[in-house]
Task: inverse folding
């Protein structure tokens, strides 16, 4: 690039110019001058293939490096205020009597590196930063050093750490994981917030077995960055989603990256955004395991979902509808329009008793399938609502209940505990298979998650958690990791 054009671009605040002419037959000087005054030395990138340059000039007498950049360059390359001449470049000693900084340490090991200017004249640090010329061999070393500096940045990530139960999250810069055999590294784009996440944070979910300090976040959607050994069917750049951690000591999704067991993942539906995809994994797997794996839901069955507009409930309604079942959903009156929009008949629990709607919709016989998503008295209601030889499923069947209403109907009860694969490692492949079914339904426009429109980031996660704990949230809350 010609000097005139280079000066013009610098005047327009171009931060850095490519080094070298790109032609190994025409070696020359590559200039890096004053750009944006906020630029610092750590932000400079040197082309790793600079084999055609004989030397490198940082700045020059007519185009000085200015402001913070000048100080950063001086500190980085002169290795301290004592290094006043080229003869001392990169060789100042620290408190332990050994050279400090990346260049100094490298030169301690590679003694054949010598500055071009090693005369007896002395320059100030400012003058030294304004005109530093290295021979071709040091230029290669500079490439290495700056590549190492950039690699250091790429080896860490931002994450939220929960130090102890009930604490607020701490933002931390921690090492980025690397995918082990059978894993993929995922750049996380969005993290879904579940009521279980808030219980884990508050210390009220011993069954999740997630010891602190920990990274929370059960659901995620993102992009594959790297693929570990033995992984088939996924490659770098694939958009994926799944229920991948946040329990059992497995890193959660409140971080920029996670190394994830590839068996837990499926390709994200093309019809859904990252935010929508991150809303699905836990609730979809829970609903699918109950209705499909346990019950074997089928066409013409009458299916009742208790809590039909909730997280698991609204997905259970859509799964049952996809199997051509006749679906009814019990919830509050304000959710009636939404329930109708996903193809179910709404039932207001405040205005109708279980006996009322069993008589109204089943002629008193009861429903073929009842999915209880609320637990407690909801499970007792399910026992009353199911028909003879019917099937009750619950994802929150943890209390003490009288089985007589169920037993006298010769009905079946099935519990769903979705965390087992993450806690034990058993059945992880099936979770990936279930997520692949979610992708099929979403791409066929038979599945759409209900989202709350508010936006949260890693810096405002506590706001989302507090909203869920207070109740009254309509739709899933999503954390945008990239914002």
Result:
């Amino acid at each position: 690039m010609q000097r005139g054009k280079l000066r013009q671009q610098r005047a327009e605040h171009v931060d850095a110019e490519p080094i070298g002419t790109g032609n190994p037959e025409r070696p020359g000087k590559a200039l890096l001058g004053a750009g944006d005054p906020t630029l610092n030395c750590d932000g400079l990138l040197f082309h790793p293939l600079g084999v055609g340059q004989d030397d490198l000039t940082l700045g020059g007498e007519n185009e000085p490096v200015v402001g913070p950049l000048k100080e950063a360059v001086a500190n980085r390359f002169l290795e301290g205020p004592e290094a006043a001449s080229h003869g001392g470049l990169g060789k100042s000693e620290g408190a332990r009597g050994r050279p400090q900084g990346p260049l100094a340490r490298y030169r301690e090991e590679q003694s054949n590196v010598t500055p071009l200017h090693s005369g007896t004249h002395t320059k100030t640090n400012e003058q030294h930063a304004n005109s530093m010329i290295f021979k071709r061999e040091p230029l290669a070393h500079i490439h290495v050093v700056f590549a190492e500096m950039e690699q250091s940045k790429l080896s860490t990530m931002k994450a939220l750490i929960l130090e102890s139960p009930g604490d607020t999250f701490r933002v931390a810069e921690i090492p980025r994981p690397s995918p082990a055999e059978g894993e993929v590294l995922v750049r996380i784009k969005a993290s879904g917030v579940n009521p279980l996440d808030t219980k884990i944070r508050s210390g009220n979910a011993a069954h999740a077995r997630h010891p602190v300090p920990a990274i929370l976040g059960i659901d995620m959607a993102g992009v594959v960055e790297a693929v570990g050994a033995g992984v088939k069917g996924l490659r770098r750049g694939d958009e994926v989603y799944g229920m991948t951690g946040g329990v059992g000591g497995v890193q959660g999704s409140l971080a920029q990256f996670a190394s994830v067991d590839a068996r837990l993942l499926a390709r994200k539906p093309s019809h859904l955004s990252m935010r929508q995809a991150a809303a699905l994994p836990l609730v979809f797997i829970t609903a699918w395991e109950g209705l499909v794996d346990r019950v074997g839901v089928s066409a013409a069955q009458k299916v009742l979902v208790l809590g039909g507009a909730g997280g698991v409930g609204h997905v259970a309604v859509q799964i049952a509808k996809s199997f051509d079942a006749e679906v009814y959903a019990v919830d509050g009156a304000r959710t009636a329009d939404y329930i109708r929009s996903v193809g179910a008949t709404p039932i207001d629990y405040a205005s109708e008793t279980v006996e009322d709607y069993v008589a109204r919709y089943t002629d008193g016989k009861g429903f073929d399938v009842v999915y209880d998503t609320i637990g407690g008295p909801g499970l007792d209601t399910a026992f009353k609502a199911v028909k003879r030889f019917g099937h009750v499923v619950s994802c929150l069947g943890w209390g003490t209940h009288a089985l007589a209403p169920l037993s006298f109907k010769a009905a079946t009860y099935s519990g769903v505990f979705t965390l087992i694969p993450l806690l034990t490692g058993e059945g992880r492949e099936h979770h990936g298979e279930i997520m692949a079914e979610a992708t099929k339904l979403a791409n066929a426009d038979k599945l759409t998650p209900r989202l709350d429109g508010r936006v949260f980031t890693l810096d405002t996660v506590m706001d989302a958690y507090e909203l869920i704990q207070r109740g009254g949230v309509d739709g899933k809350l999503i954390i945008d990791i990239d914002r």
